[in-house]
Amino acid sequence: MANIDILDIGEVAHLTGTSASALRYYEELGLIQSIGRRGLRRIFDGNVVNQLALIELGRSAGFTLQEILEMGIANDDFGVDRDKVSQKAEELEVQMKRLADLTALLRHVAHCPADDHFSCGNFQKLLRIARKRKRLQLTRGNS
Amino acid sequence: MANIDILDIGEVAHLTGTSASALRYYEELGLIQSIGRRGLRRIFDGNVVNQLALIELGRSAGFTLQEILEMGIANDDFGVDRDKVSQKAEELEVQMKRLADLTALLRHVAHCPADDHFSCGNFQKLLRIARKRKRLQLTRGNS
DNA sequence: ATACAACTTCAAGCGAACTTGAGGTCAATA
DNA sequence: TATTGACCTCAAGTTCGCTTGAAGTTGTAT
């Protein structure tokens, strides 16, 4: 019976749904770290489960592994980069607006009576809103 | 002076910011279509600009080109798959919630006073909320 | 003591979404 | 008419996030 806080790579994989090969890859990138070896085998601290949940959440939000690494939120060894983290939070809010725009567009298209939605005024209006937001975001991003 | 409705691939690229090579790739996938050739050169209808705006919006929301193709929203030749479009709208709403969860988490981490946010109760609470949402979504997805 | 399942490394492969490069064609301008 | 620059095709290369396979090691159960 292993210590609950000391996990084998297979146990981590089972608990998190992340494959062992992905875990080795993450370790190579520095996203997670094993706390040692038992023979050749990596052993992990129980907190890696939380780290992986956070990594997965970041991935599902569209962040790359590099971005997650650079924020320093998953890897607790080096402190977080608070500025980068705030900036990412803002990016997420921008992204949420994009998603809202596209949701409105899709909901419209799903019920649009026009044969060709491109010739529908309502559709064009929604598309214009989305493009306008994009332009604003680009302008801000460049400034 | 070319007809405003007839565009050369270079003009489309310039108007949309999508590279000519990407446009050829999209055509190969069936996402857009040229309305003919002038010699070897593709010519496009002006509406391709709208189609590309929609494609880009979809891409930035995280959809793959295949998903966009299957919805039938960019390519107006075949009608849209209204069910698929509705389903994608719902996926977007789920995704927006994920982003909201992660935004809250990041905003917290950016200001968390604890040395290690993993040992912060507030952080753990936010992480639990996110993981709970994920579980609910998985349960629904499988049913 | 022996078997064996689970681990190890390292290199190569994969799908998505393009880009790049080589070698060729052609429409428009000088 | 000659040039030239924007286009063309096709094949191969690139990045990301892994997976797969080969060949070897080892902790654990019998």
Description:
Two copies of one chain form a homodimer. Chain A has 143 residues and is mostly helical. The first copy, chain A, is built from six helices and three strands, in the order βααββαααα. Chain A has helices at 9-16, 20-29, 48-60, 65-71, 82-111, 121-142; strands at residues 6-8, 36-38, 41-45. Chain A has a three-stranded antiparallel beta sheet. In chain A, helix 5 (82-111) runs antiparallel to helix 6. The radius of gyration of chain A is 22 Å and the shape is elongated. Chain A starts with 5 loop residues before the first strand and ends with a helix. The interface between A and B is large, with 43 and 44 residues. Chain A binds a DNA duplex (30 and 30 nucleotides) through residues 8-10, 19-22, 24-25, 38-42, 59, 64-66.
Key terms for this structure?
143 residues, mainly alpha, DNA-binding, homodimer, 3-stranded antiparallel sheet, elongated, 6 helices
Short description, anyone?
The structure is a homodimer of 143-residue chains. The first copy, chain A, is mostly helical and 143 residues long.
Major sheet attributes of chain A: 3 strands, antiparallel
**How much helical structure, as a percent, in the residues of chain A?**
55-70%
Please indicate the percent range of residues of chain A in DSSP E strands (runs of 2 or more): 5-15%
Mean pLDDT over the residues of chain A: 93
Q: Low-confidence parts of chain A, pLDDT < 50 over ≥5 residues?
A: none
Which structural class fits the helix and strand makeup of chain A?
Answer: mainly alpha
Measured between the Cα atoms of the first and last residue of chain A, the distance is 58 Å
Count of beta strands of chain A: 3
The oligomerization state is homodimer
**What does the radius of gyration of chain A come to?**
22 Å
The rough form of chain A would be described as: elongated
Give me the strand/helix succession of chain A: EHHEEHHHH
